Amino acid sequence: MMLPKEVTPDEGNHDLDGYFCINTDDYVCPCRKRPWKYYHWHKKIVVWPTIDEDTILQVATELKVRDLNPKIVEYNATMGKAITWNDIPAGATVL
């Protein structure tokens, strides 16, 4: 199983450095059929500005139920492109 290619810092979101994201065990995204290791939406890592926001804790709990071993970690641009939770359109399906 190959993971997504490594990205250069220029491909990430430097303005989101220091935000938080959810790292998981490697899993295959059911919609894209490719492996991931972060909670994501449309090939972008979902990030939150603080570690204790209700939604990041709810998502981590849901991922734990799915046996994905979630860990809240600090985001940096070398991880890949990112999007904030608040920038995801209402009603969107997030995996």
Number of helices: 1
Tally the structural domains.
Answer: 1
How many strands in all? 6
User: Which structural class is indicated by helix and strand composition?
Assistant: alpha+beta
State the distance separating the first and last CA atoms.
19 Å
Residues in helices, as a percent range = 10-25%
Low-confidence stretches: 1-10
Q: What kind of sheet is the major sheet?
A: 6 strands, mixed
Note the overall shape.
globular
What does this structure look like?
The chain has about 100 residues and is of the alpha+beta class. It has one domain. Helices cover about 15% and strands about 30% of the residues. Strands 1, 2, 3, 4, 5 and 6 form a 6-stranded mixed beta sheet that branches. A hairpin with a 2-residue loop joins strand 3 and strand 4. The longest helix has 12 residues, at about 55-65. It is globular.
Fold blueprint:
Blueprint: E1 20-28, E2 35-38, E3 40-41, E4 44-48, H1 54-65, E5 71-74, E6 82-84
Give a brief description:
The protein has 95 residues and is α+β, with helices and mostly antiparallel strands.
Structural features:
95 residues, alpha+beta, 6-stranded mixed sheet, 1 helix, disordered N terminus
